[in-house]
Structures are given as C-alpha cells and as structure tokens.
Amino acid sequence: MVTDSAPKKPGEIILVRHGETEWSLTGQHTGTTDIPLTAHGEEQARAVGVALAGRTFSQVLVSPRIRAQRTAELIGYGAEASIEPKLAEWDYGAYEGKTTPEIVAERGPWNLWTDGVPAGVTPGETSQDVQRRALVVLSRVRADVLAGNDVLLVAHAHIFRALAVAWVELPSSAGQILTLSTSTISALGYEHGQPVIVQWNAPAL
After folding, report:
1. pLDDT band at 8, cuts 50/70/90?
2. How far apart are the C-alpha atoms of 154 and 168, rounded to whole Å?
3. Residue 102: Cβ within 10 Å count
C-alpha cells in the first residue's frame, strides 16, 4: 500500500493590528495607555472579521491592551483568545502620548528604532528590548506553524514590526523599514523552508 509521506505545508502567523484610536489618528505614541477604539476603528475591525471569516487558528494570542482585545472580539475570535503580555506595545516611557515631531522639537533628530527612549524618571524600551519580547512570542507559536497550523496574533504596530523582522532574522533596528496601518492584515510564513513575510499591511476596507 502506497501512502503519501509528503510533509505537511507549514501554516502562517496572521498579524492583525488593532483598529483606529484617537491617538493613532494624531500620531501620538501609544504604549501603556489603555485607549479604546473609535467608532471607525470598530468598523475597521469588523471588516477584518469579514476578511478572516472561516479561518481556523490553533492559537489566538492578544495584547493585554483593551484596543487589541476589543479588536479580537470584533473580528470574531475574542472567545478563543489568550492574553499574551509580551505582545504589549513598545513601552515609550517619557515619550508616551507624544508625536515624533514633538520629540524631535525637544531633542533634535531622533529615530525610535536606533535611539530608543532615554533613561530618566520614566525610561522606556529599546528596539532590542522589544525584539526580545517578540522572539518569546515566536518561540511559543513556531511549532504550531511548522506543524501546518495557522496562528492569529492581535496587537500593535511597533511590536508587530519588531516581530516581523525577528521572524526573518533581521536586526531589531530593521523594524524602521516597515509601516503598519490600523486594522490591517499581515502574514508570516515559510517558503522553501525559509521564514518569509508573506503579506504586509493589507487593508480589509
């Protein structure tokens, strides 16, 4: 009797950034602040749910922030979601709530990915700190993906940019070459055994 011994095709890690918030509209750095979705953000999230309808995931991991948890609910996967603290957004420390132009006006040329947040009364994370968290998440889901299962992560722009470059084995500062809009769908996977970015920043609306 002949059996098919071909290995199972690897699955994908689907990344969904949360819907729009008031601070995402203004470009304010939103790390630890727990800010809700706008009405349009909720509409965006529902559109992601339509795009993902019918897909099954072996794991659904969500940031502890309410904007991510609400997005997971609206796309239809809230009931099966597990909170993953390491998917929290970058801790911006003293730069929380500030825009990049405001920070540049205070200190001159600045790049979050290479300069990080200065130590002080309210220190924040560096890109290396964030990538270390991303690598822990990837270690949690990689076996499922290699076994042919899809995994869903719902979180934030900067942690996902760090996670994506960690997946393809680039240094943490490489996250600056990516951009990620609210309520977009991205996918990480394998091609010929190598980790690749399958899809990036695809809008559902």
Report:
1. confident
2. 19
3. 13
Q: Is 43 a catalytic residue?
A: no
Contact 185, 199 (CB under 8 A): yes
What are phi and psi for residue 186, nearest 5 degrees?
A: -125, 165
Give the mean model confidence (pLDDT) for residues 186-195: 97
DSSP state of 180: -
- What domains, with CATH codes, occur in the chain? 13-203 (3.40.50.1240)
Which pTM does this prediction carry? 0.94
The answer to whether 12 is a known catalytic residue is no
Q: Which of 18, 29, 156, 158 is catalytic?
A: 18
- H or E element that contains 82: strand 82-83
Instruction: Encode pLDDT of 106-125 as tens digits.
Output: 989 999 999 988 766 577 89
What is the per-residue pLDDT across 14-70, written as a single tens digit (0 to 9) for each? 999 999 999 999 999 999 999 999 999 999 999 999 999 999 999 999 999 999 999
Query: How many angstroms from the chain centroid is the CA of residue 168?
Result: 15
Instruction: Kindly list the strands in the beta sheet with 151-155, ordered across the sheet, starting from the edge strand earlier in the chain.
Output: 82-83, 59-62, 151-155, 13-17, 184-191, 194-203
- Number of other residues whose CB lies within 10 A of the CB of residue 147: 11
Describe the crossing of helices 157-167 and 127-146 by its angle, rounded to 10 degrees. 60
Active-site hit among 20, 42, 84, 89: 89
